[in-house]
Amino acid sequence: MSTWRNWAGTESATGVEVLRPASIDEVSVAVKTAAEQGKKLKAVGSGHSFTGCSVPEQVMIRLDGLASITTADRESGRVTLGAGTGLAKLNAGLASFDLAMANLGDIDKQTISGAISTGTHGTGARLGGLATQIVALELVTADGSVLHCSAEENPDVFAAARVSVGALGVITSLTLQSVPAFLLRAQEMPLPLGEVLDSFDEFADGNDHFEFYWFPHTDLALTKRNNRVAAGVGASPVSRLRGWIDDELLSNRVFELTNRLAVRRPGLVPRINQLASRALSAREYVDASYKVFCSERNVIFRESEYAVPREHVVEVVQQLRAWIDRSGERFPFPIEVRVAAADDIWLSTAYGRDTAYVAIHQYHRLEHDKYFDAFEQIAGAFGGRPHWGKLHTLAADQFRDRYPRFDDFLAIRDRLDPHRAFTNPYTRQVFGP
C-alpha cells in the first residue's frame, strides 16, 4: 500500500495498491483482475494535473515499465512509444533520430499519455494540442481487451480516447506523427499590454508560436515569439550564465522569494509585479525546438485555464483585468495567453473552433478561490472550456452544453466501461456516475 500526492499538493490518495506492469499483457491482466474484483483503478503519470483526474481510489497503475520509444521511422516520422514515456525523455529520444514534436507545452515533466489525456497544448495559431499529433494508440479496456485505435481502426474510440481523462481505459502504447528536427528563433520582449491586445491577431497569425504573460497591476506584458529559422541558420543558444540568471535565478529562485513576500505583505504586490515585469529584459536566441518550448517551473502554484473562442480572448482579458482592479485583491503570478487551431477530438478544448487559452495562477500559500471563481464566470460567458487537468468547478450538465460530442463520448464510456472500473470522484463530477 502506498500514499500518492500530485505535484501541486492539491490531491492525494492513501492506502492504494500500486501495480507496475512491465508489458501490455501485464497491464491487461492487472486491469481485468481489478475490475473483476470490483476495484476502482487509475493509471497515474507524473501527477502534474491540479484536478483529481488521476487520483486512484483503490488501485494505482504506474506505467514506468512502458516508458521508451519502441520504433522510429525517420522517413515517415512515425514513432511508437510506451504510454509511460516522459516528455523530456521523448524529446531527447526524438532528437537522437533527428525528429521532433511539431508543438509542445511549456513544461516537459508529464508522461505522454497523461499529457494527451488531459488536453495539454502549446501555442500556435496553425497547430493543435499534443493529442492532434497522435495517429494511433492501444487502449486496455475494463475486460482486459486491447483495442487498437486510429482514424481507420475503431475510429470512434480514437476520437474519444485521445482526450479521455483516463475514463475509458489504460493507454499502453501510442504512435505519434513527428516532424524533422527543427530550430526555433525565440524573441522575448516586454510590450505595453494595450499594444499586445490591440494587435493580438497580427501577433498570433504572424508567428509560428506566440504567447504573452501579463503581470496583474501593471501595464506590461512579456511577449514570446518563436519561429522556425531559414535554411542554413545555425543554433545560437542562450549563454549558460544568461540562461541561469533568467530561467533559474529570476524565474524560479527570486520569484519564489517575491511570492513569499507577497504572502506577508500583499500591499507590495503591485510594486513587486512592476519590478518583475521589467526585470525580464528582451532576449533573442536560436535553439532546438524542444529546448525553446520547455522551461523549468519550480515555484508551486494553483492554476485554472479556460479555452475560449479566439475572437473573444481580448474581451476575456479585458474583463478579467477590470475584475482584478475592482476586487482589491493582489496577484503576484502572471496571466498566460496562448492560441491553437481547431481540431476534431471530441473532448479537446479546441474541438470545432479556433481557440485562445487564458491561464491564471496563484501562489500555493495564497487563497485562490475568489479569483478562480470570478475567472470561471467571465470565461463561461463566452462558452469557455476548462483544461481537464486544471482547477474548475464545472460538472457534466455544463460540459454537455459546451462540447457537441459530449454524449457520444459518454456512449463510448458506457460501452467500454459499463461498471465504471476507471471512475473516481473527478470523473463522476465531469462525466456523471
UniProtKB/TrEMBL annotation:
It comes from the Bacteria. Gene3D superfamilies: 3.30.465.10, 3.30.70.2520, Uridine Diphospho-n-acetylenolpyruvylglucosamine Reductase, domain 2, Vanillyl-alcohol Oxidase, Chain A, domain 4. Residues 11-181 form the FAD-binding PCMH-type domain. Keywords: Oxidoreductase. GO terms for cellular component: membrane. One of its GO terms (molecular function) is L-gulono-1,4-lactone dehydrogenase activity. NCBIfam families: bact_FAD_ox. This is FAD-binding protein.
